[in-house]
Write a structure and sequence with these properties.
Low-confidence stretches: 347-352
Number of helices: 12
Strand content: 15-25%
Radius of gyration: 32 Å
Mean pLDDT: 92
């Protein structure tokens, strides 16, 4: 089950970081679970259903694939392998997600079972895929990295019209790594207002900071790319957090989420802090020895710890009043030490 209303959902994105190794894919599940995340996400590619053989490289990074089509073929996992990954995630208490990149991938994942559908940024304008996902009635996590508002409007409307389940839209900028200036934290609130649904962040910065800021601004889903090591192979390593950093993200998200769920009443806290305020507060005292009958001025007084006497904030009610008894240096000024009326000033009497 997956419920971002109950608590902020942290997704560890594996993507293609396993580089075609099933064993590495399983290692990611363990590492992401150990870091305390809520979900693990993969990408399900079926080369022949997704790509033409002449699909060009955006950036040539593979040492063993002559074409991008060949790379997608190498990234394919069998249905049994996907089922094994799903079982492993279940055993580790992780929600299992994978982004489909073809209708055939949707069918494969329907058979395997996913906790929610993740629509990748490049598939937002693919109505065939949107329809296939919506018809399952399961939750949908919609990324927005390459989309205009008009394209997102159309996708959200279509998902809802076709019976899609609960929806969260992720602010995302498809840059690897992502700089702070392109993060777009301002979009989180606009997503909530525009679509009346939860918003989240898909982060490619390779740092822990955007996730924490996004949760403070109301994000309910955080997705971060994960690497087992900065020395791993793959195009997404530079935009990923390590599993140790993922633990920091999770701890920080839980901390911020708990703080937001517990609004503070400042007056109530002040009352609760009364004993501490007395200890750390200050009281008005005689700055030097003062004789009885002296009319107090501000220069006669100092504010010193601890509290418990007349607080410095009430100094105006003390200045101008006559002492009934002598005070030694640092002695507390008490209300009973003062005459009730202030001494007339400039022809007028000031009543305290």
């Amino acid at each position: 089950m997956i419920d971002w209303d109950e608590r902020v959902l942290v997704i560890g994105e594996v993507g293609q970081a396993h580089d075609g190794s099933l064993g590495t894919a399983h290692a990611f599940i363990d590492a992401i679970a150990d870091a305390g995340a809520d979900a693990v996400k993969f990408q399900t590619h079926i080369a022949a259903a997704e790509s033409r053989t002449d699909e060009p490289w955006r950036v040539r990074f593979s040492y063993e694939d002559d074409t991008r089509f060949q790379y997608w073929e190498r990234m394919e996992l069998s249905p049994d392998a996907w089922a094994g990954l799903r079982r492993h995630a279940d055993d580790r208490g992780l929600a299992f997600l994978s982004s489909p990149f073809s209708l055939e991938a949707v069918q494969l994942l329907r058979h395997v079972g996913v906790a929610a559908w993740k629509i990748a940024s490049g598939e937002v304008a693919n109505p065939l895929l949107l329809d296939a996902v919506a018809q399952t009635g399961q939750p949908v996590v919609l990324s927005s990295g390459m989309s205009s508002w008009a394209e997102l409007d159309s996708a959200v409307e279509r998902l809802r019209a076709k019976g899609g389940g609960p929806l969260v839209v992720l602010q995302c900028t498809s840059a690897y790594p992502l700089t702070p200036e392109r993060l777009g934290l301002n979009v989180l609130g606009e997503i909530r207002r525009r679509y009346r649904c939860a918003s989240g962040l898909s982060d490619h910065s390779g740092t822990i900071f955007p996730a924490l800021a996004a949760v403070a601004l109301g994000a309910r889903v955080i997705e971060v790319h994960v690497t087992l090591s900065r020395e791993m192979f793959g195009p997404d390593v530079v935009a990923s957090v390590t599993t140790g950093e993922l633990r920091t993200v999770v701890d920080g998200v839980r901390y911020v989420d708990a703080a937001l769920a517990a609004p503070v009443d400042k007056d109530q806290v002040a009352n609760e802090m009364a004993p501490m305020r007395a200890l750390f507060g200050r009281s008005l005292v005689a700055r030097t020895p003062i004789a009885a009958g002296h009319v107090l001025s501000a220069g006669d007084l100092a504010a010193k710890k601890p509290g418990g006497g007349i607080p410095p904030a009430h100094i105006e009610s003390v200045v101008g009043r006559r002492l009934r008894r002598a005070l030694s240096a640092d002695e507390l000024v008490a209300e009973e030490d003062l005459e009730d009326e202030a001494v007339p000033i400039h022809g007028g009497a000031r009543r305290t």
